[in-house]
Design a protein that fits this description.
159 residues; alpha/beta; Rossmann fold; 7-stranded mixed β-sheet; 4 helices
């Protein structure tokens, strides 16, 4: 069974395309987006959200903590917990209501919500690599495993 997959991203366009690919492979679940400031977490989330049909801007929810996007078949919640002062604040905002079976939750800075967030299906890492970024996805659940298999197939079809 595949535990993780990785590939290189050389620019913003490829980061958006990676998000589009992920949205084709995963229609619901939880993805924790890891990476330092400026690594492309929000850009990748934009690729996911726009590929589902959103035509407006996709902004980082740094101050609002969450931005919801509703589509015919799925609700996407994009979280940015960077400015979260205390993980208990998530309880006050009704965090459990967002993590429904028919939603896709993209969570930046998940470590700030430790103890109040459900487990991730996928951990997604964006790290510097020579002239671009390296994306690595690690499965944490059976759903995550099946998403990795679909991603591998989709990437093979593109080659």
């Amino acid at each position: 069974m595949t535990q993780s997959i990785s590939w290189s991203l050389t620019n913003e366009t490829e980061t958006i395309a990676a998000g589009e690919l992920i949205s084709r492979a995963m229609s619901s679940g939880v993805i924790f987006l890891h990476g330092n400031l400026g690594m492309g977490k929000t850009t990748l989330a934009r690729g996911v959200i726009q590929s589902l049909g959103h035509e407006g801007a996709v902004k980082s929810p740094t101050y609002t903590l969450v931005e919801p996007y509703e589509f015919d078949e799925v609700r996407v919640y994009h979280f940015d917990l960077y400015r979260l002062g205390d993980p208990e604040e998530l309880e006050y905002m009704g965090i459990r209501d967002y993590f429904e079976s028919h939603s896709l939750c993209l969570v930046e800075w998940s470590e700030k919500g430790e103890g109040f967030l459900p487990a991730a299906d996928l951990d997604l890492y964006l790290e510097p690599e020579s002239l671009g970024r390296k994306i690595t996805l690690r499965a944490r659940t059976e759903l995550g495993q099946s998403v990795l298999h679909r991603l591998q197939s989709l990437r093979s079809d593109q080659a």
